[in-house]
Amino acid sequence: MRRSLQLNPEQLEISESKKPEELLSWNDVQKMKYAWAVVCEAMRVVPPVLGTFREAITDFSYAGYTVPKGWKVFWTVNTTQRNPEYFQEPNKFDPSRFMKGEGMPLYTYVPFGGGPRMCPGKEYARLAILTFIHNMVKKFKWELVEPNEKILGSMMPLPEKGLPVHLHPRYV
């Protein structure tokens, strides 16, 4: 994700249009299309939540099993967002899939949930994430301490050593 953001001129263009301590405007945030595509792809590959329980509203059969009405069913975000039917090469990190201007089929990309129970903080989260990214890219040069660090875990990927980075201030 860091590499994807550093290779794109979007943040640099926004930074160069601002005085050193000038705050972002709403128009600046709206220009961060690539940054948001990187964030969306990161949330697709590593969802911020594992899943959620839902109650079966009717009896149904799945994979040879009958699930009675009223049973709690656990639905996982990860399996939904890595479905090759909707995401070509689902294990590949590819922000361009969110740059095509086409919406995702309903309920295939759900880091904030969907439908009437969608997270009401989705747009606030978008604003906070993009502002954070802009400030981190603008104010610091990033350097990974362990560039080949292993990722552990299956349910939630975790960097083996905690992803240590050196942050070098861009402005003194």
TrEMBL record:
<dbReference type="GO" id="GO:0005506">
    <property type="term" value="F:iron ion binding"/>
</dbReference>
<keyword id="KW-0349">Heme</keyword>
<protein>
    <recommendedName>
        <fullName>Cytochrome P450</fullName>
    </recommendedName>
</protein>
<dbReference type="Pfam" id="PF00067">
    <property type="entry name" value="p450"/>
</dbReference>
<dbReference type="InterPro" id="IPR001128">
    <property type="entry name" value="Cyt_P450"/>
</dbReference>
<dbReference type="GO" id="GO:0020037">
    <property type="term" value="F:heme binding"/>
</dbReference>
<keyword id="KW-0408">Iron</keyword>
<dbReference type="GO" id="GO:0016125">
    <property type="term" value="P:sterol metabolic process"/>
</dbReference>
<dbReference type="GO" id="GO:0016705">
    <property type="term" value="F:oxidoreductase activity, acting on paired donors, with incorporation or reduction of molecular oxygen"/>
</dbReference>
<dbReference type="InterPro" id="IPR017972">
    <property type="entry name" value="Cyt_P450_CS"/>
</dbReference>
<dbReference type="GO" id="GO:0016020">
    <property type="term" value="C:membrane"/>
</dbReference>
<dbReference type="GO" id="GO:0004497">
    <property type="term" value="F:monooxygenase activity"/>
</dbReference>
<keyword id="KW-0479">Metal-binding</keyword>
<keyword id="KW-0560">Oxidoreductase</keyword>
<comment type="similarity">
    <text>Belongs to the cytochrome P450 family.</text>
</comment>
<keyword id="KW-0812">Transmembrane</keyword>
<keyword id="KW-0472">Membrane</keyword>
<keyword id="KW-0503">Monooxygenase</keyword>
<dbReference type="InterPro" id="IPR036396">
    <property type="entry name" value="Cyt_P450_sf"/>
</dbReference>
<keyword id="KW-1133">Transmembrane helix</keyword>
<feature type="binding site" description="axial binding residue">
    <location>
        <position position="119"/>
    </location>
    <ligand>
        <name>heme</name>
    </ligand>
</feature>
<dbReference type="InterPro" id="IPR002401">
    <property type="entry name" value="Cyt_P450_E_grp-I"/>
</dbReference>
